[in-house]
């Protein structure tokens, strides 16, 4: 299998034209389906006048893209108000997730917050407690950063080897955007942190009053209080008009509809860091405060939703990310992890952001087991699911960053499998 | 005026808290409107359950953002099918323009192209002419790049000193996105360029069959044939399912709904590069093929749509860009160009992409004349409108990259003025 499904270097891919000069390249390479006979007839849309500008003052996708949507798994939660929708990674390109397709996670549904009435209170162990309006917040020095957000339950359904046969459902609880706002350290400078403060409690204005404890060091390091995503105001699903962004840490600490930051000496042990978002270990104990998103990657093409269309040349594509900083390296295997090839990382490779990788591949129609494996800048290597289970058992649903295997069948279809 | 409106360095901004320890900071600084008395009452949205996930499988902005839309100028063109809509720069953040707010320019309206039927024909002086389907095109090695597109008529209404008093209408024909597709050079490798080829004619599938001539060198340098913007399929307004992207050159050469590329020895002198998109000079001659977008910048806050809310600390914000490569430096003046302060450039600073700049500023309530001036990596300095008129007269409507002046009135309102 290894020899029959050789990955191709970039030079081989681009050199094919010269090697086959004068041949009906499409048929030979299996990549171009039609060669030139006569020009295509003028399509109806080329013979008419289309819609005018500001026909849609705020645009929307083509009707042909109607299937590219967020989806949920009805049996996963009791209701949709405390549930998840998954981003369609199989249809996404580059590293930016468009705002309309950013994954959702609510703990008491999506509130409809009036930005004129919204306030952020900062109090506790501070010199000068403050209540800030949105007008106040946008006046502080601004920063824009591209960062991912991942729910720690992403991949949670796979712990006991559920095979969902869907990239969207196995990995779709991650998205990435350009966020704009104020450094949390700037706001904390403004209120003055008392020297005994060690922790911050951050709280949302949703019906759950969703709240978490964060170490002050992280708050002062790289946390942002953001009001915009991908250039425009935050979407309601993402915390309009204000959310916290905790780069590289599990998504639930990036509190949406942020209304309160209280500094204290100890963590608060809130419901969402005791009853939930802890990792139940084999011996019955729980790991708490497991905030970090460890390095993870997945092949986004081919995948169950995007099978191969017959033998020929393809580009394997995928996404890699890590909460520690930058992705250093991604390797791809087509034989279930026996042999590995270095994938190309695409610029920009940014800290705590999605990174796109690709590898050219000629598929000969035989079986294959596709995997990707990321190594982050600390040297950490993405583990197999067997390695994770050995360490953590099968009780946990959080922080499954295991290598994903896609099995390619001879008809080009793709299946979610777990290798023993 | 200069002394009264001193720009502030970053250290001064962040140091204010310490300097005013224990004081009701909000009132003193004019930045925080409310200081802490008692916590705000629970808002209605904090006492109820909100909407569930996939309530909107493809999301949309908050209803409160209904005014953040593309707009057009009805008197500018005979109809909306061959017109322009302007992006609301006054409401945008960072460097990514969300797809729903990307400016529009049509020559025969927006066609509704079926991606299954769409074809790209590459012919003329090539070894192996090809017709490619969308299925073919997505199989080639992919690249993603963040680039701006600007219409060369952006600022055209200002040549004769029209004062529109609107950032959206003076500068809104520019947007920036992450584009994904295939290098044009990859496709040209596939068909084999004949050695006598020097130019490419690129043509759209819209009713105008919009077409332009491009030097082959530019095609082989950095042009892309793209099918995605900001992670999802191209929007219909931007050429769904396929457009050309010519980085750093005037927007109309980035042909939308791209259906044909023909290589030849000479340019085609199409309607849109003879009758239009040429610059009429004072002596009656026309400059043609003026593709390059010269370095340009504009202050996006404050601006006519976003006045100042009383004296106090602010952050002047703006955008800079250049077709030659990267922005090297942006200077800001608050006295109409007499004195200049270096602004901070925000990462990432990418070639042929928008670059965000900021400068902290304490406004004392007096009059001010705000300007920004960019210098690109070649050393080119953004000119004044007087310098441009001296060189090119007042007949042209294209390639106005002049320094913009915003006049601040004592009530904080902002006006579009031209200094003599």
Question: Overview of this structure, please?
Answer:
Chain A is mainly beta. Helices cover 11% and strands 29% of the residues of chain A. Chain A has helices at residues 10-19, 25-29, 134-137, 167-171, 184-191, 216-221, 385-392; strands at residues 34-35, 84-85, 104-105, 119-124, 130-133, 143-150, 174-183, 199-204, 211-215, 224-229, 232-233, 243-245, 258-264, 279-280, 286-287, 296-301, 312-321, 327-333, 341-342, 344-345, 355-363, 368-376, 405-408, 414-417. Chain A has a five-stranded mixed sheet with strand order 5-4-13-8-9. In chain A, strands 6, 7, 10, 11 and 12 form a five-stranded antiparallel sheet that branches. Chain A has a five-stranded antiparallel sheet with strand order 19-18-22-23-24, with no helix packed on it. The longest helix of chain A is centred in the first third of the chain and has 10 residues, at 10-19. The first copy, chain A, is globular. At the A-B interface, helix 1, strand 1, strand 2, strand 3 and strand 4 of A face helix 1, strand 1, strand 2, strand 3 and strand 4 of B. Strand 1 of chain A pairs antiparallel with strand 5 of chain B.
């Amino acid at each position: 299998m290894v020899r029959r499904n050789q990955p191709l270097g970039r030079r081989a891919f681009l050199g094919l034209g010269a090697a086959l000069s004068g041949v009906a390249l499409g048929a030979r390479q299996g990549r171009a389906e039609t060669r030139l006979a006569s020009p295509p007839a003028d399509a109806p849309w080329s013979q008419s006048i289309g819609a005018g500008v500001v026909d849609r003052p705020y645009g929307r996708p083509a009707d042909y893209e109607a299937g590219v949507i967020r989806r949920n798994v009805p049996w996963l939660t009791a209701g949709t108000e405390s549930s998840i929708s998954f981003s369609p990674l199989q249809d996404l390109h580059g590293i930016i997730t468009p705002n309309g397709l950013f994954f959702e996670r609510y703990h008491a549904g999506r509130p409809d917050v009036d930005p004129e009435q919204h306030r952020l209170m900062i109090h506790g162990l501070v010199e000068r407690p403050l209540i800030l309006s949105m007008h106040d917040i946008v006046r502080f020095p601004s920063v824009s950063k591209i960062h991912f957000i991942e729910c720690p339950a992403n991949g949670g359904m796979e712990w006991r080897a559920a095979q969902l046969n869907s990239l969207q459902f196995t990995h779709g609880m991650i998205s990435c955007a350009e966020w704009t706002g104020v450094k949390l350290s700037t706001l904390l400078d403004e209120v003055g942190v008392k020297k005994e403060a060690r922790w911050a409690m951050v709280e949302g204005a949703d019906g759950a009053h969703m709240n978490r404890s964060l170490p002050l060091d992280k708050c002062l390091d790289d946390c942002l209080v953001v009001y915009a995503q991908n250039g425009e105001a935050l979407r309601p699903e993402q915390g309009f008009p204000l959310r916290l962004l905790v780069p590289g840490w599990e998504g639930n600490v990036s509190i949406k509809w942020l209304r309160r930051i209280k500094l204290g000496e100890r963590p608060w042990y809130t419901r969402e860091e005791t009853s939930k978002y802890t990792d139940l270990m084999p011996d019955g104990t729980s790991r708490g405060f497991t905030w970090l998103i460890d390095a993870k990657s997945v092949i986004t093409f081919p995948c169950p939703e995007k099978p191969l269309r017959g033998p020929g040349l393809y580009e394997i594509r995928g996404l890699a990310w890590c909460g520690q900083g930058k992705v250093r390296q991604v390797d791809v295997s087509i034989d279930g992890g026996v042999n590995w090839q270095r994938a190309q990382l695409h610029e920009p490779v940014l800290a705590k952001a999605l990174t796109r990788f690709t590898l050219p591949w000629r598929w000969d129609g035989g079986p294959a087991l596709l995997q990707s494996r990321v190594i982050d800048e600390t040297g950490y290597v993405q583990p197999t699911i067997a390695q994770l289970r050995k360490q953590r058992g099968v009780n946990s649903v959080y922080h499954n960053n295991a290598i994903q295997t896609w099995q390619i069948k001879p008809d080009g279809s793709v299946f979610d499998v777990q290798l023993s």
